[in-house]
Amino acid sequence: MDDPAHILVVDDDARLRALLQRFLTEQGFRVSSAENAAAARTTLAEMAFDLLVLDVMMPGETGLELTSALRQQGQDVPILMLTANGAPDDRIAGLESGVDDYLAKPFDP
């Protein structure tokens, strides 16, 4: 039996983090979470992930800044960016930073 994919959810909204973690776990994924980019960096140093789900706007380092830093370090894990702002210019900036895809908030799990 294969191990389930491991997903890291990074969002400063505790309610959304818990919702995503519960939903993804119910779908059979292994899920870890972090409340900001600094906590995500610590978790990424300790574990391997198959997907990162990052919020764009977080206190301190943004999801886009974290994505750029990870790509510069050679990390090629797929990144899904959660954003409340789905403007085309913002999406382009994200894709240029290394984001693989976007999911606009609000959304239904």
Write up what this structure looks like.
The protein has 109 residues and is α/β, with parallel strands linked by helices. It has a single domain, classed as Rossmann fold, CATH 3.40.50. Helices cover 39% and strands 22% of the residues. It is built from four helices and five strands; from the N terminus they run βαβαβαβαβ. The chain has helices spanning 14-26, 37-46, 63-72, 88-97, and strands spanning 6-10, 30-34, 51-55, 79-83, 101-104. Strands 2-1-3-4-5 form a five-stranded parallel sheet, sandwiched between helices. α1 (14-26) links the parallel β1 (6-10) and β2 (30-34). The longest helix has 13 residues, at 14-26. It is globular. The mean pLDDT is 90.
Which keywords apply here?
alpha/beta, 4 helices, 109 residues, Rossmann fold, 5-stranded parallel β-sheet, 22% strand
How does the SSE layout of this entry go?
Layout: E1 6-10, H1 14-26, E2 30-34, H2 37-46, E3 51-55, H3 63-72, E4 79-83, H4 88-97, E5 101-104
Parallel strand pairs: 1-2, 1-3, 3-4, 4-5
Task: Characterize this entry briefly.
The chain has 109 residues and is α/β, with parallel strands linked by helices. The chain contains 4 helices and 5 strands, in the order βαβαβαβαβ. Strands 2-1-3-4-5 form a 5-stranded parallel sheet, sandwiched between helices.
Report the uncertain regions. Answer: none
Largest sheet: 5 strands, parallel
Count the E strands: 5
Strand residue content: 15-25%
What is the N-to-C order of secondary-structure elements (H for helix, E for strand)? EHEHEHEHE
Instruction: State the shape.
Output: globular
- What is the first-to-last residue Cα distance? 26 Å
Number of domains: 1
**Sheet with most strands: strand arrangement:** 2-1-3-4-5
Under CATH, the topology can be stated as Rossmann fold
Mean pLDDT: 90
Q: What is the tally of helical segments?
A: 4
Fourth-tier CATH superfamily name:
Response regulator
Task: Calculate Rg over CA atoms.
Answer: 13 Å
Assign the structural class, choosing from mainly alpha, mainly beta, alpha/beta, alpha+beta, or little secondary structure: alpha/beta
Helical residues, percent: 25-40%
- In the CATH classification, which architecture applies? 3-Layer(aba) Sandwich
- CATH classification class: Alpha Beta
